[in-house]
Amino acid sequence: DAGVTQSPTHLIKTRGQQVTLRCSPKSGHDTVSWYQQALGQGPQFIFQYYEEEERQRGNFPDRFSGHQFPNYSSELNVNALLLGDSALYLCASIQSGEIQETQYFGPGTRLLVL
Amino acid sequence: AQSVAQPEDQVNVAEGNPLTVKCTYSVSGNPYLFWYVQYPNRGLQFLLKYITGDNLVKGSYGFEAEFNKSQTSFHLKKPSALVSDSALYFCAVSPLRNTGFQKLVFGTGTRLLVSP
């Protein structure tokens, strides 16, 4: 049973560039959430995708956008990168429709903005 | 708005001793409560959760947590610590909402250091 996978594992970009991160959910899951974990902090919710639509959004600017594909995989796009965007980006998946849900996390993509 | 507090940045315990990692929460309505563990350069691993029912929840690797509604706490415990338990522990809360709309709010994390 494949867990949540993310790619790439590491990424280095410069200010102003754009980046795309990818996530494949755990088998059987249809909902994907993205979190940003800055150094020394807890993960912060960015947004959640279900049925190819953004369903919830945290307190992040419009530079952060996403997409979900028919196979439930997802992308996180960040435009006009800032130094402060350097963080570990975590993807989590969950199966909607279950009463007692658990979000399972991928290993993360570590983004460094120079 | 919901929030989680983990008052200790670090907890030190000797191997074989019991450990407690503290968590308090603030959320309107009934909460979902979670504990996750993060090892260096890894994602978050699920340990246990409280949804409803018995206040004592048992999870992976011998960990357990006690939900205390009056004190709005959800402390993580283990009777006998192992060196391999050394990691970063996160408490998280999600309000009880419609299925699939779970949004986790995390604490700042507590680093557990178990010495041999």
Helix-strand sequence of chain B: EEEEEEEEEEEE
- Provide the residue-averaged pLDDT of chain A: 93
General shape of chain B? globular
How can the largest sheet of chain A be summarized?
A: 7 strands, mixed
- N→C terminal distance of chain B: 41 Å
Number of helices of chain A: 0
Low-confidence stretches of chain A: none
List the helices and strands of chain A in order.
Answer: EEEEEEEEEEE
Average of pLDDT of chain B: 91
Shape of chain A: globular
Radius of gyration of chain A: 13 Å
- Strand composition percent of chain B: over 45%
Structure description:
The complex is a heterodimer of chains A (114) and B (116). Chain A has strands spanning 5-7, 10-13, 19-24, 31-37, 44-50, 53-57, 64-68, 74-78, 87-94, 104-105, 109-113. Chain A is an all-beta fold. In chain A, strand 5 and strand 6 form a beta hairpin. With 116 residues, chain B is an all-beta fold. Chain B contains no helices and twelve strands. The model of chain B has no long low-confidence stretch (mean pLDDT 91). The chains are: A mainly beta (114), B mainly beta (116).
Any key phrases for this structure?
heterodimer, A: 114 residues, mainly beta, 0% helix, B: 116 residues, six-stranded mixed β-sheet, 12 strands
Compact overview of the structure:
The complex is a heterodimer of chains A (114) and B (116). Chain A has 114 residues and is an all-beta fold.
